[in-house]
Design brief:
heterodimer, A: 279 residues, alpha/beta, Rossmann fold, five-stranded parallel sheet, two-stranded antiparallel ribbon, 7 strands, B: alpha/beta, 2 domains, 13 helices, 14 strands, globular
Chain lengths: 279, 314
């Protein structure tokens, strides 16, 4: 896909997010909207992946979502990439659905390889997969997305130390650095401090991305790929606006985990062009 | 049944891992800075590329194991039982059990028998935690040979497993003639007055108790429940229908252990007098293995006393 098509897809994915969360009357629209450009670029341009889903993913790039609460954006791009029917997005968070509130393998949803939601675990799992790829001589890459508030979980720092020590250089971890978490701004809850310096001092190659500028997302993902295979794990610090694309959801933590009501959903959808067709 | 020497159950794990490494190229060993304790140096020497040292970071180890399993490897994690369960329960729950990962959680130094390190390390709640997880297989072998057999068996089983073993040298009595099958109880002696269901190190205590009781005219059926989950309900009910009373013996809290599983089964299918030998809602302390088992009521005389009480309640 070219950049204009990716932007159209991103608009459609944002509509999916609003409609899913509105229909479920709960869920996490804020960071889902913020990460939409990243997910769209990843699934429609960057990943070498096969929507005829295979758990082991041999010979494929593999993606792991650590901050599982932004499941709406992931489900939307998975469905629109062909992993499962887009009509299934209507079942999000409802009884007997494969689209659990937080991603799970339990119901057999294609595209999901491990459950996430309890924070801080995804990077470790991604490292395990990356190690298996090295053992198998598989030169494809492993991608992982984490939240920023999530970095307050200690397991991440265990994983970061490990990946540098063991030279897990087939791994690209992106941090959704929107500066917000449930109780407020990171800086008011628990400051992350000098995040670039921390990752650098842990031995990672650190790149910066403007996560709501599709051109920059594509550019930095390409740079990240080029930085793999050089003895260091790669980190992308991705600045995003939580709620990007819906004016009243932007610049606040208040839409982290809250669904819009009927009027709010209508106002949000009016700002997001239906480019490909709603589910 | 006689003992033919002493060896620690953890040696059974280490010896089996070396053999498994030779048999199955998908087997990967992980360890959290306890290589000597887990006895896996042999595996590391022969298969350095399939050994992953994670350092003192057990949560990360469980996640990495889940990732290795996702990609088709058979990871065996190694650390003490305390750090294999309580410290990393949420990682096991979400990344391994709920996600159906083929991870083998191998835990040494379980129970009070680890001795002098004291209660910080003497986990007696691990079986309770692990058996509560849907889909988790829970195995507590009783001696060196059975730990070896169990290690081979879990490599063949697809799904998450908790394998619990211990630190001290312990009597060996299981031989190659005792076939190990996950979920199948092992009858060690036939009897008519009481069924003693024992797991782990306390199987030997049950055998000793049965020998002494035999001289007093009490006929004991000793059954080794190495697999606490899934429980061999058929073998338990068969034995209890004959003996009509039960003693359970385990190096674990009575709350939430093997005894609880058997009591739940019998309450539903065959209400029967039952007595429990185990840790009675206490933390341990520093001491020798023998002194601790005696002080906290998990020794041969405790099994004998429990048998007499159970029989008196028939």
């Amino acid at each position: 896909m070219e950049i204009q098509e990716l932007q159209k897809m991103a608009s459609q994915v944002r509509r999916d997010i609003i409609r899913m969360v509105h229909s479920a009357t709960c869920g996490h629209p804020g960071a889902s909207l913020g990460c939409t450009d990243f997910f769209t670029a990843l699934y429609f341009k960057v990943l070498d992946h096969n929507p005829k889903f295979n758990m082991e993913g041999k010979g494929e790039d593999m993606f792991f979502l650590s901050n599982g609460h932004i499941s709406p954006v992931w489900y939307s791009v998975l469905a629109r990439s062909g992993y499962f029917p887009i009509s299934e997005l209507a079942t999000f968070r409802k009884l007997d659905s494969r689209l659990q509130g937080h991603p799970a393998t339990h119901e057999g949803l294609p595209g999901v390889r491990v459950a996430s939601g309890s924070l801080g675990q995804g990077m470790s799992v991604a490292i395990g997969v990356a190690l298996a790829k090295k053992l198998d001589g598989d030169d494809k890459l492993v991608y992982c997305l984490t939240g920023d508030g999530e970095l307050q979980e200690g397991q991440n720092w265990e994983a970061m130390m490990f990946a540098a020590h063991h030279k897990v250089d087939n791994l690209i971890v992106t941090v959704d650095w929107n500066g917000q978490q449930i109780d407020g701004a990171n800086d008011d809850v628990i400051s992350l401090g000098d995040l670039p310096a921390k990752w650098t001092s842990f031995g990672w190659e650190v790149l910066h991305m403007s996560g709501n500028d599709m051109a920059d997302v594509l550019k930095v993902l390409a740079e990240a790929k080029a930085a793999t295979g050089k003895g260091k794990p790669v980190c992308i610090l991705m600045k995003t606006d939580m709620g990007y694309g819906v004016d009243y959801m932007m610049g606040t933590h208040k839409w982290h985990g809250k669904a819009p009501n009927d009027e709010q959903a209508e106002a949000a959808l009016a700002q997001l062009e239906e480019t490909i067709g709603d589910y | 049944m006689e003992s033919y020497g002493k060896k620690a159950t953890r040696n059974g794990y280490g010896d089996a891992m070396l053999e498994l490494g030779r048999q199955n190229p998908n087997v990967v060993a992980l360890c959290a800075d306890l290589v000597g304790s887990l006895k896996i140096q042999g595996f590391i020497d022969e298969f350095p590329e399939r050994f992953i040292q994670v350092g003192v970071a057990e949560a990360n180890m469980m996640g990495i194991a889940a990732g290795l399993a996702t990609a088709g490897k058979i990871p065996f994690t190694g650390t003490f039982a305390n750090f294999s369960t309580g410290r990393v329960y949420d990682q096991i729950r979400q990344s391994i059990a709920y996600s159906h990962k083929n991870v083998k959680i191998c835990a040494s130094h379980a129970g009070i028998s680890l001795g002098e390190d004291g209660a910080t390390h003497q986990i007696m709640e691990d079986i309770a935690m692990m058996k509560a997880l849907p889909g988790m297989v829970v195995i507590n072998p009783c001696d060196y040979e059975q730990t070896k057999q169990a290690t081979f068996a879990i490599a063949e089983h697809h799904g998450p497993v908790y394998l619990r073993f211990g630190r001290p040298g312990w009597p060996m009595f299981i031989t190659g003639e005792h076939k190990f099958e996950i979920g199948k109880a092992l009858q060690l002696s036939e009897g008519s007055d009481v069924s003693i269901f024992a797991t782990g190190h306390l199987v030997w205590k049950a055998i000793e108790a049965a020998k002494q009781l035999e001289t007093q005219g009490v006929s004991c059926e000793v059954i080794n429940i190495h697999t606490i989950k899934p429980l061999d309900e058929e073998a338990i009910l068969d034995s209890v229908s004959k003996t009509q009373c039960v003693v359970t013996a385990e190096e674990h809290q009575i709350l939430g252990g093997l005894g609880g599983s058997i009591a739940q089964l019998l309450a539903r299918k065959m209400p029967t007098p039952i007595e429990f030998v185990g840790m009675n809602d206490k933390f341990g302390e520093s001491g020798t293995t023998a002194d601790l088992l005696e002080k906290y009521g998990m020794d041969t005389p405790n099994v004998i006393e429990a048998v007499k009480t159970a029989i008196s309640r028939k």
